């Protein structure tokens, strides 16, 4: 035997580590076959599928799609559907309530039922209706059992409302009820202290009034609510007949 290796001397390749051996054979272009349990596991370098990022300034279609698929708070787990808002997207008046109730959650429209009918009558007194104003809520999803919105829920939804305001550019925002008023203005005062004054949200006039549901329980307050509507009309330049 004349292979350059003395008898009784171990071949250096035999004492190399398995890793070195495989690297050596791979460098020579020789395929290495290993039992299944010894082979290196396949590496999945594919990226997980992600939802398309929302543009910094989404248009109406992009915003509505983002709201309908929103999972930024736990309310998405219990909603029937989101309640985006309805009305004229070039409206002078933006009406903002607190959150959808059971019927709104079922129908996907804000302010329905008895409270919604009263709101319609309030708007009619100003020669307005659901086709001439835009109606939205602080929250786009219904809180369970119609409880008050939690702050983290309102915070999660705020960017959607802010974008609606930016797209509409209303002449007046009517904050309907305590939750809407406090969230829009960043204050803890009750409605009784916030109404009767023209507030400002990024230079847009904001007038606070009672929620129609409250007026149904306390009809004696309707006169005050009418004064609030007249104040909003004056601030927006709306002529009251």
> Which CATH class of the domain at 82-236 is shown?
Alpha Beta
**N-to-C order of helices and strands:** HHHEEHHEHEHHEEHH
Question: Within the largest sheet, what's the order of strands?
Answer: 1-3-2-4-6-5
- Helix coverage percent: 25-40%
Q: What's the CATH topology label of the domain at 82-236?
A: Uracil-DNA Glycosylase, subunit E
Mean pLDDT rating: 85
- The count of DSSP E runs of length 2 or more, i.e. the number of strands, is 6
Distance between the termini: 117 Å
The largest pleated sheet is described as:
6 strands, mixed
What would you report as the Rg, rounded to the nearest angstrom? 32 Å
Strand content: 5-15%
Return residue spans where pLDDT drops below 50 for at least 5 consecutive residues: 1-10, 12-16, 35-41, 46-51
Task: Describe the protein.
It is globular, with a radius of gyration of 32 Å. It is α/β, with parallel strands linked by helices and 241 residues long. The N terminus is likely disordered. 33% of the residues are buried. It has a domain of 155 residues: Uracil-DNA Glycosylase, subunit E (3-Layer(aba) Sandwich). A 6-stranded mixed β-sheet has the order 1-3-2-4-6-5, with helices on both faces.
Give a quick rundown of the structure.
Mean pLDDT is 85; it is low at 1-10, 12-16, 35-41 and 46-51. Helices cover 38% and strands 10% of the residues. The chain contains 10 helices and 6 strands, in the order H-H-H-E-E-H-H-E-H-E-H-H-E-E-H-H.
Task: Produce the secondary structure layout.
Layout: H1 12-15, H2 18-27, H3 60-68, E1 86-87, E2 93-97, H4 102-107, H5 113-124, E3 134-137, H6 151-168, E4 172-176, H7 178-185, H8 191-194, E5 199-201, E6 204-209, H9 212-217, H10 222-236
Parallel strand pairs: 2-3, 2-4, 4-6
Antiparallel strand pairs: 1-3, 5-6
């Amino acid at each position: 035997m004349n292979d350059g290796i003395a008898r009784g001397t171990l071949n250096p390749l035999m004492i190399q580590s398995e890793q070195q051996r495989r690297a050596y054979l791979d460098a020579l272009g020789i395929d290495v076959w290993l039992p299944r349990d010894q082979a290196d596991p396949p590496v999945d370098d594919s990226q997980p599928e992600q939802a398309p990022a929302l543009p910094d300034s989404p248009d109406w279609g992009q915003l509505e799609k983002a709201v309908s698929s929103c999972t930024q708070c736990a309310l998405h787990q219990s909603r029937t559907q989101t309640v985006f808002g309805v009305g004229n997207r070039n409206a002078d008046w933006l009406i903002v309530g607190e959150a959808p109730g059971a019927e709104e959650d079922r129908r996907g429209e804000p302010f329905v039922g008895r409270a919604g009918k009263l709101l319609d009558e309030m708007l009619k007194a100003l020669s307005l209706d659901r086709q001439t104003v835009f109606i939205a809520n602080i929250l786009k999803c219904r809180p369970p059992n119609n409880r008050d919105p939690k702050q983290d829920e309102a915070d999660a939804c705020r960017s959607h409302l802010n974008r609606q305001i930016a797209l509409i550019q209303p002449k007046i925002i009517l904050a309907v009820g305590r939750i809407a008023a406090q969230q829009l203005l960043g204050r803890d005062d009750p409605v009784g202290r916030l109404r009767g004054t023209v507030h400002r949200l990024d230079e847009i006039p904001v007038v606070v009034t009672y929620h129609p549901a409250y007026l149904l329980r306390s009809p004696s307050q309707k006169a005050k609510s009418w004064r609030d509507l007249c104040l909003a009309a004056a601030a927006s330049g709306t002529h009251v007949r």
